[in-house]
Q: What sequence folds into this?
């Protein structure tokens, strides 16, 4: 696994730092994070390059999905 970390949590979304790049995930595009405890959001792993997993929330995202959520509209909707 490589180093990845959540660098900020705000009222608008989450910032993820991976490979020297900061990626923003808004709650509008990634609603699964909105009402989660901070401890669950901070617990992120990168099982393979560009693939992020939050075990406690059971959210599995790729760098492409985070950068271009508009390309994956069915994924970015809370059930």
A:
């Amino acid at each position: 696994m490589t180093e990845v970390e959540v660098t900020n949590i705000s009222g608008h979304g989450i910032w993820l730092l991976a490979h020297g790049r900061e990626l923003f995930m808004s709650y509008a595009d990634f609603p699964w994070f909105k009402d989660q405890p901070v401890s669950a959001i901070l617990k992120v792993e990168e099982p393979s390059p560009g693939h992020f997993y939050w075990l406690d929330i059971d959210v599995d995202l790729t760098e492409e999905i985070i950068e271009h959520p508009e390309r994956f509209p069915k994924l970015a909707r809370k059930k």
Summary: Strands lie at 4-9, 13-18, 21-26, 44-48, 51-54, 59-62. The helical segments are 38-42, 63-67. The chain is about 15% helix and 40% strand. The chain has a mean pLDDT of 91.
